[in-house]
Write a structure and sequence with these properties.
388 residues, alpha/beta, seven-stranded parallel sheet, 15 helices
Length: 388
Amino acid sequence: MKRKICVVTGSRAEYGVLYPTLKAIASARDLQLQLVVTGMHLSPAFGLTVKEIEADGFPIAGRVKMLVSSAGETDMGKSIAKGVMGLVDCYKRLKPDIVLLIADRFEMLAAAVAAMTVNLPIAHISGGEISEGAMDEQIRHAITKMSHIHFVAIKENAMRVRQMGEEPWRIKTVGGPWMDNIRGFKPLTADQISSRLGIELKPPLLLVTYHPVTLEQDKSDEHIKALFGALAEIDTGEIIFTYPNADAGGMKIIRAIKAFQAKRPNVKAFKNLGRQMYFSLLPHVDMMVGNSSSGILESLGFYLPVVNVGNRQKGRFTTGNIISVPDRKKEILKAIRKAMEPAFRKKIRSMPNPYGRGNTARNITEVLRTVNLGPAILRKKFCTIPMT
């Protein structure tokens, strides 16, 4: 009897990170992948990225519509409630042995609450990380406390999960799953990228992804003005925007992107680049700008400078290629110019990558194959760390 692994995905970003793990689970002889698609994947406003999943060849075991909207401040809570109801029914139908979730978005909170209430074991990827500027911080730690197995990227994250009272045997330091995408990836050619995206890859090429800072919504107009004001003063070859997530305030950023693009022929914007295009594009990019987790986690694998704007990723472990600045035009401009300096770019080439060598999917799959899913896994104990 194959062990049924139910994986829930709700956004383009975490699907891209999950991709190697999904492949590993699907190819394991003693595992059965049950892929459940929800959130932005099912929304035309965000590129209907379920089509990318279908094109990758993964059978979809369940589709749960949960997005109410992304404009109102109450819509996220309503979406979570809708998602919990739909996912409970989905789990009841699929009867998985364990649910695998990743990261810290509200779709994952709904998936965790639904699994917990029907007594399903939960395995969680990327616990122990920090992002103090967004409610993702609380969501991630809440999922950690609901989960039974923790796949963390680095030892610092493992210690944070221990500080939350989790038993050591439940915590597995497996490396960063995004590194598997970089290792062995076969990119599109420059000509293929240019043709499909309608761009010339003219340097300096900036890739900009800016998400709502959900704990600072009252300052969003000020923050948007600072970012786009700085970008307007940079002499670049091309600027490529990817749309923000479906968080409260996302539509305001999308409107700003469209207005900025309308005035500048060297600006392109995409709802979703897709996993293959995104990773193919990164070797041609001169820097990443914004506040996405990709800039924090994946950028060093491509030796890219990153200008990390504002507090959304505050507290995260950062590598030396990342320049963090407040949401102020002057500071953003200064950081972009520093990231363009040849000496800074040269220095990045010799920086060690702390996230492993690209074998995380294998590590996760081995645990999913062998972990004891008997009654003991659901009986969590609070493990106190002795005071020193």
